[in-house]
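Checklist before submission:
- one chain only
- standard amino acids only
- sequence pasted in full

Submission:
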Amino acid sequence: MSDYVPNNRSFKLEGFAEFEAQLKALGEGFRSDLVARNTLVKAAKDAMEPVLSTAQSMAHFDPNNTTQIHMRETLRLDARIPNSKDKQSGYVNETDAAIAVVSVKKSAVSLANEFGTAKMGKRPFLRPALDTKADAVLDILKDRLAFIIPAYAAKLSRRRKK
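Returned file contents:
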């Protein structure tokens, strides 16, 4: 996949002001970070699962390597409320309520595979995995939020009644 060219697509997302207002109303009287963790973070993690599995299938694998861990075995998916270090990234905005990241153990090998070196062509696997699964990520995110938010709202409603 050394001829990979990143997909520069755009998405138009609407209704987030209303969505934010609904989440704030949902969490009225509860910690906003807990509301985000129990709704947005869970949905984001579920939505990025296809990217993780695609990246694992695309990561370079050396069948002759029987002594060391394969790069695809170091891939992981993490979803969280962005911390100050995350917000230093050009990919995370100050207003982001939750992020989900598919990453690989940072090493010279993983960087060389993703971006190439002077001696080795690039064999990207992280960026193409996201590019090929972007539509699925959005569909899953929408579906999971439609399920998680009402369930969490019902749970908070029961707590308020106590």
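Reviewer check: The two ends are 57 Å apart (CA to CA).
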